[in-house]
Design brief:
The chain contains 14 helices and 46 strands. Keywords: Cell outer membrane, Ion transport, Iron, Iron transport, Membrane, Receptor, TonB box, Transmembrane, Transmembrane beta strand, Transport.
Amino acid sequence: MVSGLSGFQAKHIIRQTTDAQSSNQCPDETLWNQGSVRAGGALRARRANKCPACFLGPYSDWETRMKEVKFKPPSGASRLAITMAIGASVLASGAHAQDTAKTSSGETIQLEEIIVTARKRSENILKTPVSVTAVTAEEVEQRGITSVQNLSEQTPGFNINNNSSGRGDRSFQQLILRGFTPATTDSTPVATFIDGVPVSSPTAVMSVSSPERIELLRGPQSAYFGRNTFAGALNVVNKEPGNDYAGSLTTMIGTRNTRRVQAELEGPLVEDKLSFRVAGDYNAKDGTYKNYANPSMTLGDQSSRNANLLVVATPTDNLTIKAFGIISHDKDGPAALGLISARAITDSTGRVVVPAQANCTLGGFNPFMCGTVPSLPATTPAGNYNVDSFVRNALAVTTNRLIDPNDSVDSYGLVRDYRHAHLVVDYEIPDTNFTLSSLTGINHEEWGSLSDIGNYDSSGIANPAYTATNGLRSYFSSAYLVENISKDISQELRTSYDDGEALRFVAGVSYLGANGKRTVDTLDNMILNKQVTPSGKTESKTYGGFFGITYDITDKLTASVEGRYQIDKLYAYISPLADVVVTDPTFVPAGTYKAGSKLAEQTYKNFLPRVIAQYQWTDEVMTYASVAKGVNPASLNSGVVSYTGQAATIAKTLGIDLFVSPEKVTTYEVGLKGTAVDNRLRYAFAAYYSQWRDQLNQVIQTFVTPTGGFGSVFGTINSGNSDMKGLEFDGSFRLTKMITLTAAGALNDSKIKDYNAPLVTFLVGSTDFSGNELPSTSKYSASGGVMFNGEFDQWEDATWFARVDYNYKSGVWSDVANVVKTPESHIFNARVGATVGAVSVDVYANNLFDSRRYTTANNNILFTPAPSFTYSTLNVGLRDGRTLGVQAKYKF
């Protein structure tokens, strides 16, 4: 038997499959019989029980037919390509295995099948016992998804927080699934991947020019995806380039100087052996909000440009090699962040710069905002964002800079450069059911962020540290420069087995090594010290061995046992600036530590299992139940090496230590998936209960020193425990040939059992947060959409569509005290488009009714020349206003 089909044979079968519908004839059965069609999960007989109708002949099911023709479906990457090609051809021509729903003209109106790789193999989403949201390439385009922020806004149960420490830029984006809100800016409970290979930045996943689909996996995914998949994983799958030369050019313009240009080209380098796709993308927008301190400046400006290249080689029928790379550059202006204060701020003339908006008193003496977050005052958003000689001189400092000043920020905002590359190799061992796979990835990210974390116009307030000769501003400001460099490399080796009958399994090993450096300093210090104060680098190494076994106990009952044994090694290093003499042995042994030397290391070992029981009630309905464990890698506080005496005692009392234990979760989940109404209705339900233990949280404590000054300690601790529960729904209904309805919803409920948050305690006067919900996440969220599409009878090869989407998210709490929360949001998006031949034109309206509801809310200190050291303010994330635009695309 021939082990696989050549490119010619595959295309021949696809073409005959399509033609068969009109001629009522079957493809060449001799050719079909002699080739081992690598169909994989999508066409596996016993589960899918469907095939092109003409192949069934007198047989009642696909399994019987395959036994007759000695069908032997091996596993591997190459069979998926043929599967999807045949499936697309069949669906396009209206051929389906089961009885189809048809219009009066005989055209089918079934929903298309969606394939996902949630378990490192290709499976029908309705047969996958995991809660998965899959966004197809067509939906990405029709819904105008160009960023992770767009994706989260349109996905129930998915929030993003980039509001912390007075900053609201894209230097960090916390992905929040199922209410698992990370309390630290560096904690990542949802990891991101491209083609299953880790990427270090959420921004990178949306740099893929032609995604086959975006997969959002909910719940612990440690067994297959490794570290940082504590609450889920976001995986973008590349669409393989075709065997014909093709390309596209897309341009878009919109209100507020919104613009985009994208171009891509794909085709064969060697017929049936080597193909490529190269693409470039530039998109930018001006912010919605004017800076009150400088009305000529808008806040929230963003621009991104990237280039990516995909090369796919199939030197033999058994070997597939994919190489992919991204280079991207982001440049943003000051963030769209507003300030709401409980206390008033006035300048030297008596002008009220920030009004007091307190409506309650907490802890007996702290004025604050309670209930719904108040409206933004007329004097904000504002900030001292002018680039004057003070800023230029500070940014010209070179000593101890992580990034060359020519490559970092030159004004307020963010500059980020990101590079990613990966190589995926799949080899199907001939005459067996085994596939060997290798996934290698490398990431390099560096960014600089300059922000005034006061977030108000302080130009009329004198700077007490200013002198005529020290180079500081004469007025008070809170300008901070943060620079970061992170690198990582990953390697995964695995083998998978699929006998086409009852048994499938995968087993492998993985490694992820990462290191990073970060500096945080005020521009005042940089001017006075003529240098940046560096910190020691951080380093981690993660080793894993994983497996997954799936066995069909009966035709209806399937069991899966998965697991990963993970070893995390963390290393802390001394700052490279100078030797450190430790006199207080509270955290590390006393002694002299050389500059840049390793301070300490720690190892954590965890076994992370997942067990799934799956029952196929009918061909259309499946239920499952699972239990899974996840772990988020531990953290470290290298700064404790400098704490002595009073500071060391207070830090220890808060629970701060050099190393912090990993946080853990156990999740129980049940689900129901299926189709109905002759495959016109697709639905998925899931319910879960999670126990989140040893949560990480950042704490800071300010204290009065014996000399009457102020000191502070800062660090990450294991702060507490929470229980999480929720319900999720996702469904689509093809009402008619022209109308498709979509709906999704999520209830993500969290309940704190115990939690340690000293600053919040100081604000509210209580240490008991039990029974409260976690902040920065929506408890309720939903979306609904209606899609109209059809053809223009007067033109050949001409179609049109119109789409309206509604997205709802309930408000989010600002902290664990649950004192104040944002209003709920209702966002409508609309898009209308037409395609005539090679040209497509879309007109869109995002945030159609111009909602200005806040996206985030975060407690912050009120920064003045004499800080109050209490959480007296709220920083609120400001939503983009209504954007109208038009997009044109030419395909060739």
